[in-house]
Amino acid sequence: MNRLAILLAVLAGCAVQPTYERPAVELPQAWKESAPRFAADGRWWKIYADPLLDQLVDEARAHNADVSLAVARVDEARALLGIVESRLGPVVDATFDRSRALSSAATGTLPPGSPRERNDYRATINVSYELDLWGRLRNTAGAARAELLASESARDTVYLALATQVARSYFALAALDARVELTRRTVLLREDALRLQKRRNENGLTSDFELRQLEAEAAAVRAQLPPLERERDTEEAALAVLLGRSPRAIFEGAVVRAPASAEPIATVLPDGMPSELLLRRPDLVEAEQRLVAANARIAAARAAMFPSIALTGFLGSESAALAGLFSGPAGIWTLAAALTQPIFTAGRLQAETAAAEARERQALVQYQRAIQTAFREVRDALVAQRRARETFEAESQRVAALGETLRLARLRYEHGLASQLDVLDSERGMLAAQMVRIDALRAQRAAIADLYKALGG
Predict the structure, then answer these.
(1) pLDDT higher than 80, residue 164
(2) What is the rounded distance in angstroms from the CA atom of residue 105 to the CA atom of residue 243?
(3) What is the DSSP string of 8-43?
(4) At 281, is the secondary structure helix, strand, or coil?
């Protein structure tokens, strides 16, 4: 018996799972910039200081279909963990059996005077328990626990991506509002100029050529309005879907938004060491937890090659009559132990271990690729927000310069020093520059959202 115990202890030591260590990754020394810490609550979109945007993000987090799906997956993973962890404890159940049997009188095996028909009543409480000496059950539970953490991180990734999408769509909608409003104002200005030009033409002060030029220019601006309104309606419907609104609200409702500010928000600069990104980004946490789960499943697969020891027993009563079932003489009990050692499985256990090891290698590659993608996204987002700010500033200078050009062109036209074509060219250039500036402002705000997403919120 002592030798058996020693042998089991040695085998148990051989089956111990190696301690998981995070794979080494060559990281940059530090960020090139530094700034104050982000908000601890992760509500990064408050940097825009827009209460309506805050409400929309909260609405999306509560009703978006992708969020609901991610939350349900977390609930499923939590339930699966409960199933696996239940196998670490004993199983207790109760049974009650009643049977009636007829024995053959032709065999001569019945004692004299024994009835051929017999009743049997049996009530027991049964207990079974597997000794997890090699860690198969513990590692299976550890894998399920890592899968739960991974699903929670996947849910957080959905939250992060959703907030970014809502912010981008919200500011795109605001930009389209501004472009539509600018176009409408331009149409009104052109129509007022056209009415004035018609009166001048009727009085012989201008030629028909100049009148037709102005008519064509006014029509060209009016033609820009329907595509912009269609694009705005499309963006509004897309935002309503992100918010998880009902089909009726998507078809008939409107998304309330505040008038867009004409100025960009402050540039965001990351703080801390790059290693913090491994803990901050939920997709990297998810990838690592998948690796942890794969590592645990290798140990579980290896443990299946070792003996399994099961303890079983029951305590109850058995009687030929229901009235005597719970009397003292009817008591029964059994206690048993069973040891099972796989000997020949045609390579199944070895193949299962090899498959688990291959899945761990896959998880490792996916983790490393996720890190590469994360740092590429951070680098791209840093560059994008810097360049977007520079573009906006340049476009703002362009609008200011063209505004002065338009003022001078009108002044020269009023004094007969320039033609109406010069004024129209200046107005056309001014409208185009204002449109580009509005889009540059949208891109700058979107770049901020992309950077927060890249940094894990």
Answers:
(1) yes
(2) 80
(3) HHHHHHHTPPPPP-PPP----SS-S---PPPPTT--
(4) coil
For the chain, give the mean pLDDT: 84
Give 141's pLDDT tier (boundaries 50, 70, 90).
very high
Structure tokens, 305: 């090659």
**What is the H or E stretch that residue 176 is in?**
helix 136-202
pTM for this prediction: 0.82
In the structure encoding, which two tokens stand for residue 370, read together? 């996720």
How many other CB atoms are there within 10 angstroms of residue 259's CB atom?
Answer: 9
Buried residues in 260-269 as b, exposed as e (16+ CB within 10 A): beeebeebbe
C-alpha torsion angle, residues 451, 157, 250, 175 (rounded to 10): 0
In order of start, what are the domains of the chain with their CATH numbers? 22-37+47-63+132-301+350-454 (1.20.1600.10)
Q: Residue 415: which region, alpha, beta or left (left: phi > 0; alpha: psi -120 to 50)? A: alpha
* Crossing angle (nearest 10°) for helices 208-242 and 420-454: 10
Backbone angle region of 256, left / alpha / beta, with phi > 0 → left and psi within -120 to 50 → alpha: beta
